[in-house]
Amino acid sequence: MTEPLLRYFASLRLTLPLLFGLALGAVAGTVIPQNLSAADYERLYSPSLTAILKTLQLFDVYRSWWFIALLGLLALNLTLCSWQRLPSVWNSLRRMPSSAPPGQPGKQFVQTFSIPGEPPEVASAAVGAFLKKRFASARRSGHGETLSLAAQRGAWTRLAVFAIHGAILLVLAGGVIGVLWGFQGYAVIAEGETVHELVSRRGDQPIPLAFGLRCDAFSVTFHDDGRRPKEFKSMVSILEKGEPVLERRPITVNAPLSFAGINFYQSDYGPAAPPRVSLRVQPPLPAAPFEVILSPGETAPLPPGGKLRLLRFAASYRDLGPTALVEVVAPGGESYSLPVFQNRPDLDDAHRSGYYHIRFNRFEQPYYTVLMASYDPGLGLVWSGFILLAAGLTMTLLFSPRRLWVTISPDADRLNITVTGEWRRNTAAATAFFGHLAQELETELGKRE
Amino acid sequence: MASFFFINAATLFLFAALLLFLLFTAGRNSRLGRWGRTAAAAGFFCLTAGLALRWRESYLLLGAEGHIPLTNFYESLLFFSWTLILAYLFIDFRFRLPLLGAVVTPLALLSLLAAQLTGDAAIHPLVPALKSNWLTFHVVTCFLGYAAFAVGCATAILYLIRQPGKTPGRPAAKSLFPEAELLEEIHYQAVMVGFLLLTLGILTGSAWAHRAWGSYWSWDPKETWSLIVWLIYAALLHARMIRGWSGKRLAWLSLLGFAATLFCWLGVNLLLPGLHSYGGM
User: For chain B, N or C: smaller number of CB within 10 Å?
Assistant: First the structure.
């Protein structure tokens, strides 16, 4: 690449449009619904607008060529910029100039005071000792009668920016690896069934598994109010050649199961078949009670000549637990309907005077569970990028590099001491710090005899 | 519940603080500024007590299902108000800038009032997706980040109305507004802190999403908007290093960044469907 072109791709002038471009693309991706069917888009937009948005790939922004190109350019920009700047920063860490360079306005502190005359070497030794104690070890150098000391602190934090940029590259690389060689799928498994492949989330070929995934049981529990779910839990087994290698392991929300590099997550559930509700029916005494098992909509004959129909069933109703709404027809033909509650079986006894007494025994609900599955070989890179990013940013915030020069030059029968401080961030704190340090140095040098 | 008493008291104190700061701005009486700060500090104390009690009350009410009060829209408004006053008090403590209170207090008060007027204050058990240790880290870092961006935006507003170069003839205005350099520095530091916290918020959210949903990034509207906010502030931090990008331009960029932040927090929940819907009203 030619020099000016290289400089352009490494420059901040490119960074800004890239960041804004990605931000705008992301805004478009949240404002325009993504990946809907053609019919849905027809309803939302006019045909001409649909055509324009489709050409610009605005229906699939995050996979569009231009969004990926912006990300690629950002990665290139980060790489080149770091590549260009690293050597000079590295050198400045190892060796700082022996005298203060002309500083940026507002980023430099200069203060001069004078002390009674003495050999400059003696003063230099005292300053060196002071700096070592209060700031950092100083490198001494001399030009004729003028001696100077240079010291720096926290210089290594200038490397943080490279850590941050490197971290972003790691995350991007991890993302690319995940997209290219990873997969995301899901499995819908009824209780007791086993699957050997996953449905791909991208909608292409099913993903074969090298093992069987069996759902032993699924359960959902509710809070006391009966509406808010408390826990969704699948018990699963992993089978290899028909033999279980993992048995009855729980998968709940926020607690996935990991096997062979694939993570399985609790994602959804539903009824695999109508519920079976067991009701206890007590005809007038002294007849013995008996059990009737019904699904919603079914009717059963009740001896000696009545009928019982299950109208509706709810697995949870307020704090009354599983609830069935039943219709009872007495042998005489009079009919009435009533709800029966698992948690309050006595409700029926106190207030009702029907021919039959109905109580809720229990219910069985066969479920299917939906497990999300993901395999992502880029995860390691992404996590290390995350850690490096957090560490790099924290480092930049907590520490900031400060450099300090002290020059000692004879002036008539006195010595002029000039303290020059330099910083990159946090002007108020740095000014106060160097002011305080210069003050202390003056006191310290005055105290010596 | 006792928590409501303290939350109401916090509202009153913040209202008093707002009045005092406005009087301070109008009259330039530094004593009023100090009283405003004291009222804001009292409001902060009450809100802290209110949140702590609410935390405790959730355990009294739900037993083992009790949880930190950071789990619905009502609580997020309370917590946002809390982080805002915290950020203001911190900066006022470091830089003596009661004027910032005049910009931040209205926002904190607004958030508190919105919580009390629109939010559902009842304490409910958590849905399974929210039952995770990541919850606290994720919400706390995000909201502290939002607060830092709010303070950055407030200093940017002060910077913009200060109109550098137009006030030398008016000593009174000078005493009210700090030096432009100080505002620039507070602004930069607030944005830096906000950027770190937002990054931590995104990273913890991402790690949590991996654990709960099986994917560390799904381009869910909330995720995407947090990325948009991140990109804007990343641009701001870098623009500072480009010649010609300083002062007013950065201040406007900060306003844009905070507008995106507000949208990320409120707009996404109100307008865009997605995985973070339980944060809605």
Answer: C
Q: Which domain holds residue A103?
A: 96-154+400-447
pLDDT tens digits for B254-268?
999 999 999 999 888
Query: Would you call B117 helix, strand, or coil by DSSP?
Result: helix
Same domain, A73 and A115: no
Residue from A13, A76, A106, A424 nearest B242 by CA? A13
* Shared domain check, A11 and A79: yes
For residue range A312-371, what is the model confidence (pLDDT) as tens digits? 988 888 778 888 898 888 888 888 888 888 888 777 655 566 778 888 888 888 899 999
Is B120 part of the contact surface with chain A (CB cutoff 8 Å)? no
pTM of the model: 0.87
Question: Does the distance separating the beta carbons of B65 and A16 come in below 8 Å?
Answer: no
Q: Rounded to a whole number, what is the distance in Å from the CA of B176 to chain A's nearest CA?
A: 19
Q: Which residue has the higher pLDDT, A425 or B102?
A: B102
- Residue B185 neighbours by CB under 8 Å, 6+ apart: A426, A427, A428
Rounded to a whole number of angstroms, the distance from the CA of B85 to the nearest CA of chain A is 22
What average pLDDT does chain A have? 88
Same domain, A247 and A189: yes
Residues B84 and B160 in one domain: no
Interface test with A, best of B203, B206, B229, B276 (most A CBs within 10 A): B203
Residue of A nearest to B195 (CA): A393
Whether residue B145 is found in the same domain as residue B197: yes
ipTM (interface predicted TM): 0.90
SS3 of B215-265: CCCCCCHHHHHHHHHHHHHHHHHHHCCCCCCCCHHHHHHHHHHHHHHHHHH
Kind and range of the H or E run holding A390: helix A379-398
In tens, the pLDDT along B123-155 reads 888 888 888 889 999 999 999 999 999 999 999
Chain B partners of A389 at a C-beta cutoff of 8 Å? 199, 203
Q: CB distance A372–B182 less than 8 Å?
A: no
The residue range of the domain holding B141 is 127-281
